[in-house]
């Protein structure tokens, strides 16, 4: 059997008679086959006949046993006879014949191959090839460039008009002025305008060519101001609240004298853009939030805890280790800080400037979370994708450096986008009907960072994208036709990865949207909810006592902190209230949590007690066999809701095919009526004759499979399995094998 290759993909090296280790103690369960290294992935082609599950998600770019080279974190070779291990890099020599290969992946997988039956020279060559091709020297050596070279071309007219080829994603890319115009109109930001002074990246190398600024600021003034900002990143608009307040982001002004002068002019322009001329608050994120290095160190710890370290003594130690990693503290801290910004925008009707040294990291997280909390549009699938495109890709987040695709500078690596997705999952976990998409979508989106076939996660900014594409065309001597450009597809073109059926896993069956339809007396109507009350700085008081989540004074660390909690140590510069009486911000949060939440009418606030912020198990523990719950986990609820939603959709479709009741009260079918509409649900409604129990193939890791992706002994009865099943007391002293590097 040969590897399935994509356009532009070539086999670099391969070796036969390789054993993929499934269980560390029972080798008879292992798979035998061929290990292949291409310029895109590590592929294992098994010779064993495997029983395929009835329901399996098929990736269009990757097989079940494939790993993209960009996903590899460490390539470790082992020689059991000599007791040696070596972490391989690019262009390195290997002085011993490897008996094993261990691949540590950025998505938390650990995959092990044994070469005890393979030729020693072949094993050595394939290991060196994997190490070399997983360390590309330049961005254009990433596989995505070979992949798009002969596949994705479009006319300059389509690009200029912002239209996409037929079948492409309809997500706005914000690379043209029309996308920004539509966003201005959608948010009713009448006093803001699209600015084009950065066309050709003439002003700032890291800002997009088009962005939005106050209408009262002239282009000439903006050009003069730009030289004083770090990387010339002047203040740009993110979003407008219905009350007129605006969210703005900008870089620092190193010169203190110029800072005072420019702050006044910029704030005056923002005030003029507000219908009520409300004040402007500026927030320095560098002083209030953890650094990108802190966040990276935390991820390293949580990876060690979840997939590498053994459970030595008790589950309490494991849980305290998760706590001490500070990952959940950082998640809570960013959510808390975003809540404070929400209060200023919604509660005080004030505009907010988010300031960061380069405006390309922490600002991306906070600005995105604030908009998700305030605007239901960004809780839809298309809205969320437009938010990522607007606040991350076009805003110049350094995806190439932060993902460390070239593996050149570990100090620049930081999982800010994963942290953001975890924060979104926490909101989704607390308000499951408020989001149109699912946690499977978030996990697949995160995994897509390691598939270098999409433009979304490969570049540091739009200009870097343009320059790298030009260098690729020159190096490959590719000549485009007249009016053609080479188009690197964004990740939002999900049909590149998944079938329409598998994309249905992204749809939340219990989502309640403004446009949800129902049928009443044969007529299709829209589901509407009562409008949620708005707030001002003069909020009514609430009875004493804790709010539902204990949010008593967000700015004063009022939430119950974890032990050694970072959130308890941080003091935001957003609030300066020191009165003994309840502050307006406290009343704002108390008042919101004391009433019923309506997630489709604007504001959505997270609960921030430690008990409300669990570990995102589908992402962090999906490859751990011990954490897998057969026929359990959140997928079981999703399965039932999906079937119910499909049944409701089917009944609605049937009702729409009737004109209405006849005099005999019997509905007549309309001959010209539409046929049954395809369901948006992955799991279809079962008939009366089919069992309604959870299928055997479902587990808490669905649609991901842990088999063969993490080698450990003693897969049953381990401490974590008991923890996940709700045990109170643990007596097991079993430990899991450690994999020191």
UniProtKB/TrEMBL annotation:
Transmembrane segments: none annotated. One of its GO terms (biological process) is phosphatidylinositol dephosphorylation. One of its GO terms (cellular component) is cytoplasm. Pfam families: 3-PAP, Myotub-related. Residues 659-679 are annotated as: Disordered. PANTHER family: MYOTUBULARIN-RELATED, MYOTUBULARIN-RELATED PROTEIN 10. This is Myotubularin phosphatase domain-containing protein.
């Amino acid at each position: 059997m040969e590897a399935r290759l994509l356009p532009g993909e070539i086999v670099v090296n391969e070796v036969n008679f390789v054993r993929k280790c499934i269980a560390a103690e029972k080798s008879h369960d292992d798979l035998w086959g061929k290990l292949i290294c291409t310029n895109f992935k590590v592929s294992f082609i098994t010779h064993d006949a495997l029983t395929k599950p009835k329901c399996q998600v098929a990736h269009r770019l990757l097989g079940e046993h494939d790993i993209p080279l960009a996903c590899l974190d460490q390539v470790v070779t082992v020689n059991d006879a000599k007791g040696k291990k070596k972490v391989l890099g690019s262009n390195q020599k290997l002085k011993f014949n490897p008996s094993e290969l261990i691949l540590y992946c950025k998505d938390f997988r650990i995959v092990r191959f044994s070469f005890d039956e393979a030729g020693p020279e072949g094993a050595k060559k394939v290991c060196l090839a994997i190490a070399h091709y997983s360390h590309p020297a330049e961005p254009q050596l990433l596989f995505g460039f070979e992949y798009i070279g002969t596949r994705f071309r479009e006319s300059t007219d389509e690009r200029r008009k912002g239209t996409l080829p037929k079948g492409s994603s309809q997500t706005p890319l914000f690379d043209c002025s029309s996308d920004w115009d539509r966003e201005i109109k959608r948010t009713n930001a009448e006093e803001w305008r699209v600015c084009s002074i950065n066309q050709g990246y003439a002003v700032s190398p890291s800002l997009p060519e088009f962005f939005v600024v106050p209408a009262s600021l002239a282009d000439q003034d903006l050009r003069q101001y730009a030289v004083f900002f770090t990387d010339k990143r002047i203040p740009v608009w993110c979003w407008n609240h219905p009350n007129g307040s605006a969210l703005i982001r900008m870089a620092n002004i190193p010169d203190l004298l110029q800072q005072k002068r420019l702050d006044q002019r910029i704030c005056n322009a923002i005030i003029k853009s507000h219908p009520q001329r409300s004040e402007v608050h500026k927030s320095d994120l560098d002083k209030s939030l953890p650094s990108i290095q802190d966040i990276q160190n935390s991820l390293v710890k949580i990876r060690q805890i979840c997939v590498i370290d053994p459970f030595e003594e008790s589950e309490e130690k494991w849980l305290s280790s998760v706590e001490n990693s500070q990952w959940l503290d950082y998640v809570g801290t960013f959510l808390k800080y975003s809540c404070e910004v929400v209060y200023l925008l919604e509660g005080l009707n004030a505009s907010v400037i988010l300031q960061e040294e380069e405006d390309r990291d922490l600002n991306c997280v906070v600005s995105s979370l604030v908009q998700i909390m305030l605007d239901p549009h960004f809780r839809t699938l298309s809205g969320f994708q437009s938010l990522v495109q607007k606040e991350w890709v076009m805003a110049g987040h350094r995806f190439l450096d932060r993902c460390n695709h070239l593996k050149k500078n570990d100090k620049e690596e930081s999982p800010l986008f994963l942290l953001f997705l975890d924060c979104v999952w926490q909101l989704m976990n607390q308000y499951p009907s408020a989001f149109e998409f699912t946690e499977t979508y978030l996990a697949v989106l995160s995994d897509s960072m390691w598939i270098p076939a999409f433009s979304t996660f490969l570049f540091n900014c739009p200009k870097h994208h343009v320059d790298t594409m030009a260098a690729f065309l020159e190096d490959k001597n590719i000549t485009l036709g007249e009016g053609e450009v080479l188009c690197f597809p964004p990740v939002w073109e999900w049909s590149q990865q998944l079938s329409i059926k598998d994309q249905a896993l992204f749809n939340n069956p219990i989502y309640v949207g403004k446009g949800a339809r129902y049928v009443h007396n044969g007529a299709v109507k829209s589901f509407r909810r009562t409008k949620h009350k708005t707030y001002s700085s003069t909020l009514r008081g609430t009875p004493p006592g804790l709010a539902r989540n204990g949010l008593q004074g967000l700015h004063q660390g009022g939430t119950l902190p974890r032990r050694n909690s970072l959130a308890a140590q941080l003091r935001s510069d957003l609030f300066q209230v020191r009165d003994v009486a309840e502050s307006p911000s406290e009343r704002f949060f108390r008042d919101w949590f004391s009433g019923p939440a309506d997630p489709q009418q604007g504001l959505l606030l997270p609960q921030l007690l430690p008990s409300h912020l669990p570990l995102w198990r589908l992402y962090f523990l999906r490859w751990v066999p011990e954490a897998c719950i057969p026929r359990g986990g959140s997928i079981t609820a999703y399965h039932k809701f999906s079937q119910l939603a499909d049944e409701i959709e089917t009944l609605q479709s049937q009702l729409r095919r009737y004109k209405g009741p006849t005099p005999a009260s019997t509905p007549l079918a309309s001959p010209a009526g539409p046929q049954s509409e395809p369901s948006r649900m992955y799991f279809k409604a079962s008939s009366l004759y089919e069992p309604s129990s959870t299928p055997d193939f479902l587990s808490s890791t669905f649609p991901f499979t842990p088999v063969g992706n993490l080698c450990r002994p003693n897969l049953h009865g381990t401490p974590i399995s008991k923890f996940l099943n709700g045990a109170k007391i643990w007596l097991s002293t079993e430990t899991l094998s450690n994999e020191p590097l």
